[in-house]
């Protein structure tokens, strides 16, 4: 039995092997992903992001347990968890997180957990995460929770990947919290104030609400054009109709607020599907993905045609300020057999 | 007088105009950067990063004031500040930060401040920031402080760009702080515990020290190979000799610890220059930069040769699971006149 068949038949070891191939971006890995592709597109991809200290991991575990619970009034769903740790590009710090999770969810064949550290290459993490999500999707995992630490590009990448993006907050996490939120809020489909038993929860909610309203005013107000110009280039994040990100309180460590949150997550999936945005998000995501691969292939092909010595020599010329970068790039491009 | 000459002669308005061109990635902007390139390479690029709430902006302002001070026993240096706000990809939240800074540093012709929000494109921010730093460098700014919020790819990008990377901590910023640090620490040349008058400062320092030692053990211990394999792909961050990141305490809001920090920053510059690592970092940075531009040019050239309708049609085929992504990519690549 080939690796594709093994993954499709639900063999965990096969899935784990495939994921390793995807992480290492191997040719066999790509081939298997290609074979599996017709079986993907069913899973609900949920991004979970927010600052350190908000209790994201605990929240993700609780959501996983909820989706696995036979008593939640819905069908039990198979749950994949991808814990992306972009702050550990080097030493694989994600491993520790894995062990902690295992205590709660281990032994349940309906749960598959994988931690990933940042790839070195630009866009490498987003690409690898997409691949891993596809593999889990093909293997029959119906809900895939993608957790990431950090603020910035990684969140935008997640928003690109996920159908539903949760932004997790917690009370009292620093004084420039409001400055931060202005941007982060815009990728949120659902806002979660976790650790809602901590003091300051009212302030956090008030700050989030006023930021949300500011964002709303911005959308419909005088800054409309500027806003939409910026949006144009990242149209996947556009939310043109109807959905206002709700604010949900939770205390994940005590399991409180999880049912309400899961309900809203499910509602968001229904909303996306009935407004055709589900498909629109897939379309945009795939477009970005194809672009990244094509850039990569073009560069590889070019690189194979330009000897390392030529490249290094050109680089040296620039470093010594003998030649300018753009001039050098044009000269380097001419050195390949690609036609320009 | 052309824009290049105006920038070289120190005209602030010209510099501001050029930076706007760089941010919008225009052809004239690239041309001017190319003309200015021979005049770059003198500035000390200092990256300042860390979680929200650590007081990075205040610290950056204090450092700027210190470098501008005639009483610090050193020559006054011209200071550029680039405030990168990767968490505000949409609404340009960086603007607020600008206004706050202005109060302290405005009116000093030896200081130039620019805020930047995240670009939509992958690597776009790193590229734009590199360009802006080069423009300031050519305009005679001798110290360029590049401040970023967030954890993840943006830090790695900064470490790629800067000669010296400061990672800023503060006591009591959340319970998964230690898990986070494992990765962030490795891009730090200098660790700053700001807000050192807050309770918990001893714990923070202890945690940082033990993480540093862990990292050190990892470098020399049994995980040596794994570590170096990962490092290989991001060799710019390697610190093969001699420099152990010192931990400096500061209370930026009161101006305490700034002199000590500035001394260590200057020592790091001397260290880099005497060990040839200054040049090595420039080499690696430039290599990455050239690669990004080449990828971009290759993609643009390819894109011009493939009609939008063909691209969208291919995309649709994939979305409907009629064709697999990799197969589609290969077919799309053949459709261009580039030779493979």
Provide the gyration radius of chain A in Å: 22 Å
SS field, number of helical segments of chain A: 14
Order of helices and strands of chain A: HHHEHEHEHEHEHEHHEHHHH
Please tell me what the overall shape of chain A is: globular
Structural class from helices and strands of chain A? alpha/beta
Distance between the termini of chain A: 45 Å
Determine the fraction of residues in helical runs of chain A and give it as a percent range. Answer: 40-55%
Instruction: Report the average pLDDT across residues of chain A.
Output: 79
- Which strands sit side by side, in order, in the main sheet of chain A? 3-2-4-1-5-6-7
In terms of DSSP E residues, the strand content of chain A is 5-15%
Largest sheet of chain A: 7 strands, parallel
Residue stretches of chain A low in confidence (pLDDT < 50, at least 5 long) are 87-99, 175-181, 218-239
- Assembly status: homodimer
Pair of chains with the largest interface and how many residues each contributes: A-B, 98 and 98 residues
């Amino acid at each position: 039995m080939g690796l594709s068949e093994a993954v499709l038949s639900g063999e965990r070891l096969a899935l784990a092997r495939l994921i390793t191939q995807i992480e290492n971006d191997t040719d066999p890995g790509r081939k298997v992903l290609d074979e599996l592709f017709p079986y993907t597109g069913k899973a609900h991809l949920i991004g979970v992001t927010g600052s350190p200290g908000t209790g994201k991991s605990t929240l993700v575990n609780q959501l996983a347990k909820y989706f696995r619970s036979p008593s939640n009034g819905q069908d039990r769903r198979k749950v994949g968890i991808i814990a992306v740790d972009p702050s550990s590009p080097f030493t694989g710090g994600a491993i520790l997180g894995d062990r902690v999770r295992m205590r709660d969810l281990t032994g349940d064949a309906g749960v598959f957990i994988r931690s990933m550290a940042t790839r070195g290459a630009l866009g490498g993490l987003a690409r690898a995460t997409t691949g891993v999500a596809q593999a889990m999707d093909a293997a029959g995992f119906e809900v895939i929770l993608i957790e990431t630490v950090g603020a910035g590009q990684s969140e935008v990448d997640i928003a690109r990947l996920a159908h539903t993006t949760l932004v997790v907050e917690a009370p009292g996490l620093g004084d420039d919290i409001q400055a931060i939120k202005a941007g982060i809020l815009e990728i949120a489909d659902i806002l979660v104030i976790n650790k809602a038993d901590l003091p300051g929860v009212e302030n956090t909610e008030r700050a989030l609400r006023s930021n949300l309203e500011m964002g709303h005013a911005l959308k419909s107000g005088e800054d409309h054009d500027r806003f939409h110009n910026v949006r144009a280039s990242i149209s996947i994040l556009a939310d043109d109709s109807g959905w206002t990100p709700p604010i949900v309180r939770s205390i994940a460590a005590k399991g409180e607020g999880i049912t309400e949150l899961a309900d809203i997550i499910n509602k968001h999936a229904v909303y996306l599907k009935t407004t055709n945005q589900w498909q629109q998000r897939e379309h945009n995501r795939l477009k970005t993905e194809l672009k990244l691969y094509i850039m990569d292939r073009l560069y590889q092909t070019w690189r194979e045609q330009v000897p390392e010595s030529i490249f290094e020599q050109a680089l040296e010329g620039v470093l010594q300020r003998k030649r300018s970068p753009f001039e050098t790039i044009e000269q380097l491009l001419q050195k390949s057999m690609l036609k320009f």
